[in-house]
């Protein structure tokens, strides 16, 4: 009964987001806009009109792309808030295909994350630090099935 076909790949998505009343979300919190995990930059609430509901106007930035998104939701209606996880890893190696070899605090290794895309400062600091032989820590943020390296710092404890 344990090995039912299809169950190991099935994903209910239950842990990706949590429902929350729009009026409870504050600046600095998270919200899903257009099915993207976003960090709220500003919230303004309009007065209740003749049709009843006060409306929350959210301005937020996508936590992975930095793109600005807006949404208007009645304050008493439910909206989705992404579960955002932040993990710090020690960088062990960078493969020829730009996959990062990482290790967490408990010693678990993973090699499934690629170097961030594009010619940004983050890619430059990871490359330069690794090539110089520095001990580097990278911060990986995970939300809604996506994982990205968000920052890198020189490990001073080593």
Describe this structure in words.
The chain is mainly β and 158 residues long. The chain has one helix at 121-131, and strands at residues 17-21, 30-33, 36-45, 55-62, 68-74, 78-82, 84-94, 99-103, 109-114, 136-143, 146-154. The strands form three sheets. Strands 9-8-7-10-11 form a five-stranded antiparallel β-sheet. The protein has a four-stranded antiparallel β-sheet with strand order 2-3-4-5, with no helix packed on it. A two-stranded antiparallel sheet has the order 1-6. Strand 2 and strand 3 (36-45) form a beta hairpin. The longest helix is centred in the C-terminal third of the chain and has 11 residues, at 121-131. Residues 83-153 form the Translation initiation factor 5A C-terminal domain. Keywords: Chloroplast, Hypusine, Initiation factor, Plastid, Protein biosynthesis. It is found in: Plastid, Chloroplast.
Q: How many β-strand runs?
A: 11
Number of helices: 1
Distance between the termini: 49 Å
Return the string of H and E elements. EEEEEEEEEHEE
Largest sheet: 5 strands, antiparallel
Instruction: Please tell me the overall pLDDT.
Output: 86
């Amino acid at each position: 009964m344990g090995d039912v076909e299809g169950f190991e790949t099935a994903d209910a998505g239950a842990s990706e987001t949590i429902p929350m009343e729009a009026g409870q979300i504050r600046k600095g919190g998270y919200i899903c806009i257009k099915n993207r995990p976003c960090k709220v930059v500003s919230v303004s609430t309009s007065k209740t009109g003749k049709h009843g509901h006060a409306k929350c106007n959210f301005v937020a930035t996508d936590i992975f792309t930095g793109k600005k998104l807006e949404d208007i939701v009645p304050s008493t209606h439910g909206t989705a808030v992404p579960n955002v996880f932040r993990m710090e890893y020690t960088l062990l190696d960078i493969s020829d295909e730009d996959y990062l070899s990482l290790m967490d605090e408990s010693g678990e290794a993973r090699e499934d994350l690629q170097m961030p895309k594009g010619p940004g400062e983050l890619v430059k600091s990871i490359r330069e630090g690794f090539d110089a032989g520095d001990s580097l820590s990278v911060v990986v943020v995970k939300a809604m099935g996506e994982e990205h390296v968000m920052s890198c710092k020189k490990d001073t404890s080593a």
